[in-house]
Write a structure and sequence with these properties.
The structure is a homodimer of 178-residue chains.
Chain A: H1 5-20, H2 25-36, E1 41-42, H3 43-50, H4 54-67, E2 70-73, E3 82-85, H5 89-119, H6 127-151, H7 155-164, H8 167-171
Antiparallel strand pairs in A: 1-3, 2-3
Helix pairs in contact in A: 1-2, 2-4, 3-4, 5-6
Chain A binds a DNA duplex (30 and 30 nucleotides) through helix 4.
Chain lengths: 178, 178
DNA sequence: TAGTGATTTCTGTTTAAACAGAACTTTCAG
DNA sequence: CTGAAAGTTCTGTTTAAACAGAAATCACTA
């Protein structure tokens, strides 16, 4: 697969954005390429297209599979692995959010809870500081619980809610001022 | 200011999390420390507490001010700058989201729009690929528009909506299945 | 079961970011 | 106007991640 200028711009930008959000540039570029590709690609095709080392592509594909964003397929009469990305963008977003919650938010909650627990028998930490940690715990818990609730909804329901935007508040008569 | 074990755990974890989300470790640590601190701190106090070079602290504080997360204050009869972090967590979150939208989402929208525009007179890019870029544009626009709408709501309204969780859908009779 | 194609793992190199320390600039007090 | 304190900028070093290429493993076919 050869990159046209448009594809190249897309892939490079995605790599750059990935980097800003803590995702390896190669990983993000490969993901972008697979998202664009109408058909599954082999590791070698990817390496050639993006001018990356074969080994680098292998590792990155493994990571993308770990995220659940890329799956492996096979073509009849072809021993090679072919890779394709989820193309449903809503699915893609939910997958990423779910995974980041698992990897980053949940451990943070654990850490905060432990801090609050230990704060009980701790004499040296300023009470105001303890209070701030507790506030942070409550805050992260609120966000996390909200997400867990939203996750139970149908995709179509979520889309409807999102399209309603701020009207949601009006309909529910939650708006105080304008 | 001396770090107690609890504070140290909190600050180190925050630094680690920052790194995973594309924020410099020192920047995240300093932000965590200022969030915890009941009173504003000078750059030197921060450097001593976190064992960072004075220059590093200076740069990081600049960055945090750029994000709008930290402000500069002065004490009477003291020439030194004192720094304090926003402590309202809701404010903090909105500030971060707003800033990331400005720095990352908006440029991405620009890139996607340009791709779609250029796709018009482009013969070499597969129509399916063009379609996928357009779908991505629509998707990011939907998310962005939703955010812009929610941003107009009062903080209290947002909190109420969030606390309602999935009940929102039920009340609006949007749920199809369970 | 030998041999080839495909993939992964290992190891060393490259690269970019993070950081420290020094030099420099600014600000204010006396 | 001078000197000291505070803050910033510059430059070189360190460190960690990203990456390439080689070696090793695995998987299948003939």
């Amino acid at each position: 697969m050869r990159l046209t200028p448009i594809m190249e711009r897309y892939v490079l930008h995605w790599g750059e954005m990935g980097a800003r959000w803590g995702v390896n540039r190669s990983v993000a570029q490969i993901h972008a390429l697979l998202y664009l590709s109408p058909k599954p690609l082999t590791a070698e095709e990817i390496a050639d297209t993006l001018a990356l080392a074969r080994s680098n592509v292998s590792t990155s594909l493994r990571e993308l599979q770990g995220w659940g964003l890329v799956t492996l397929t096979h073509a009849l009469g072809d021993r090679r692995d072919h890779f394709e990305a989820k193309t449903d963008l809503w699915e893609m977003l939910l997958t990423i959010v779910e995974e980041r919650k698992r990897r980053e938010v949940d451990p943070t909650l654990t850490m905060l809870r432990q801090c609050v627990l230990d704060a009980g028998e701790d004499k040296e930490t300023d009470p105001e500081i303890k209070a701030r940690i507790e506030r942070m715990l409550t805050f992260v818990e609120t966000l996390s619980n909200w997400y867990v609730q939203m996750r139970t909804l149908q995709k179509s329901t979520l889309v409807s809610l999102m399209k309603m935007g701020s009207k949601v508040a009006k309909v529910l008569k939650l708006t105080r001022a304008a």
